[in-house]
Amino acid sequence: MRTPLRGRFTATAAAVLSLALALTLGAQAGAASPNGANGARASAEEIPGTYEVRGVSSAAQRSVLAAHDVSIDAVDDHSVTITADKAQAKRLRSMGYLLEEIPGAVPGALARDDSGGDFSVASTPSQYTSHAQMTATVNSLVSQYPNLMHRQVIGRSHQGRDIIAVRMSNNARVDQNRPEVLFSHNMHAREHLTTEMALYLMNEFATGYGRDSRITNMMNTREIWIIPSLNPDGKVWDQDSGTFRNWRKNRQPNSGSTAIGTDINRNFAYRWGCCGGSSSNPASDTYRGPSAESAPETRVLTNFVRSRVIGGRQQITAHIDFHTYSELVLWPFGYTYNDTAPGLNQDQHNVFSTVGRQMAASNGYRPQQSSDLYITDGSINDWMWGDQGIWSYTFEMYPRTASQGGFYPPGSVIDRETARNREAVLILLENADCMYRSIGKPQLCTT
Predict the structure, then answer these.
(1) Candidates 3.40.630.10, 3.10.450.50, 3.30.200.20, 3.30.450.40; correct CATH number of 127-444?
(2) Closest CA to 398 of 200, 135, 262, 181
(3) Which of the residues 52, 396, 423, 430 is marked catalytic?
(4) Entry pTM
(5) Predicted local confidence at residue 29, as pLDDT
(6) Which stretches of the chain drop beneath a pLDDT of 70?
(7) Within 10 Å of residue 35's Cβ, how many Cβ atoms?
(8) SS3 label, residue 149
């Protein structure tokens, strides 16, 4: 279990945390799961594997591979890493793809550290904050810093779990007329490091206020929104059985199919299903759903973002959606290989690229347009920008490769890898009042 953040709490906050955790765990234990009790262990057959596919080197080749109903997890110069079950792997091999399973990325297996040596203990679910623990931690922080944090339920998941957003500022109880910046996390169930990122940001901005000049300035001049988990059902399913299940989607049943779940990040209502960047197969990890915004979690986020249009103007100016893994900073568009397209002119592309590269220089990630990896459609970044005009980025966090732990790196890296993004977050916040200033054209900012 990760303890450093909780170790900073006061005795009173710790008591609040313990009580909230006990209540949340009790409620969670009674929640029904479509595939059995939450505590039931997944069999080996239910957990898909991780494979390296060699000989795939271009964005076009990667897009073709992704169209075969598999999710691409990481990209190298001449290969990609995918998640696939045995049937999918067999089918890809029959089509001529060269697949090699990566045992180090399978839950329960050894991972390699940054120097190439094996970790003696592999990642386990208890090394990451569970959904119940996350809820209790958020409640404790809000109780401890009531003037700096305001928690609200913005909707519910398919299984009825609260999806919360926390507003942070120097007067968080009041909706002020300031540039707003949104940080969203845990859209994909197995990406637990992103929830740790949310808790890190909350703690960092609360404890840094009045002590760190940059944090204090941002809390005085911005409203910061944090959604710690957009996919609570998927997180619980992937983590709470005691064995990671390598699960990506939400937990919504699909009519006419035994397959469960929609890929929330292919379900947004901008170029939904337009361009071969998602799947129509409910069994696929990139299943886009029967219609745009068919997933309740997608609607929760889009309705919240739309609710921030006040007086005809979108208050949220900038956004990061945190994912794992690959160590990338990505920006729109994902549906086309072109740098510019209707709704994204050259100046706007230059802003995305300039700020994206500044952030990447601070954390060591690789900056690029989303479609440089492969084509996606119905994604959050494309919707945020194309529909709402919000400067939206995706961060693919640590590790860089599957052999370093993939979606499940050891809990020992949590503090280091969340703090690694502190400067990047501040860079976005400091640009959020006028993103065009980054390219020397502040006159393009609206007043």
Answers:
(1) 3.40.630.10
(2) 200
(3) 396
(4) 0.88
(5) 36
(6) 1-46, 104-122, 447
(7) 14
(8) strand
